[in-house]
TrEMBL record:
Subcellular location: Cell membrane
Phylogenetic classification of the source organism: Bacteria, Bacillati, Bacillota, Bacilli, Bacillales
PANTHER family noted in UniProt: INNER MEMBRANE PROTEIN YPHA-RELATED (PTHR33452:SF1), OXIDOREDUCTASE CATD-RELATED (PTHR33452)
UniProt KW keywords: Cell membrane, Membrane, Transmembrane, Transmembrane helix
InterPro entries: DoxX, DoxX-like_oxidoreductase
Chief localisation class: membrane
UniProt keyword Membrane present: yes
Keyword Endoplasmic reticulum attributed: no
Topology term for the membrane: Multi-pass membrane protein
Descriptive protein name: DoxX family protein
UniProt family annotation: Belongs to the DoxX family.
Organism for this UniProt entry: Alkalicoccobacillus plakortidis
Length: 129
């Protein structure tokens, strides 16, 4: 039971973290985020995909919906951010937060979090996502 409580806390805090980061991308207009993505060499539309993944995925984690799937998506986003953007900046002041978010996402992808999760009421195989 202690492990489930720990995973619940991790799921909720990770969800809030991604939700807030997604909402923050709208500060000053999403166009600013699009410009930032393009400045890093990514297509601008990815800014929209990442932003909405962070917002919707963050909400999904908070309520425990599709925890494994959302966590895999977040792990991909974080791995890409580390490798393509932050690695050259080094650990401190560079990719340390991204690495923590990546590992937390991987932990939830591997173990899920069923306590107080909407997934528990889904039918059959849907519970495993």
């Amino acid at each position: 039971m202690k492990t489930e409580i720990g995973l619940l806390l991790l799921r909720i805090v990770l969800g809030i973290t991604f939700l807030v980061h997604g909402l923050d991308k709208f500060n000053g207009g999403i166009e600013q985020t699009v410009g930032m993505f393009e400045g890093m060499g990514f297509p601008g539309f990815l800014a929209y995909l990442v932003t909405f993944a962070e917002i919707l995925g963050g909400l999904a984690l908070i309520i425990g919906l599709f925890t494994r799937l959302v966590s895999i998506i977040f792990a991909i986003i974080m791995a890409t951010a580390i490798i393509q953007v932050k690695l050259d900046s080094g650990f401190l002041g560079g990719f340390e937060l991204d690495l923590v978010l990546l590992v937390c996402s991987l932990l939830l992808a591997l173990s899920s979090s069923r306590l107080l999760a909407v997934n528990r009421i889904l039918p059959g195989a849907m519970k495993n996502f």
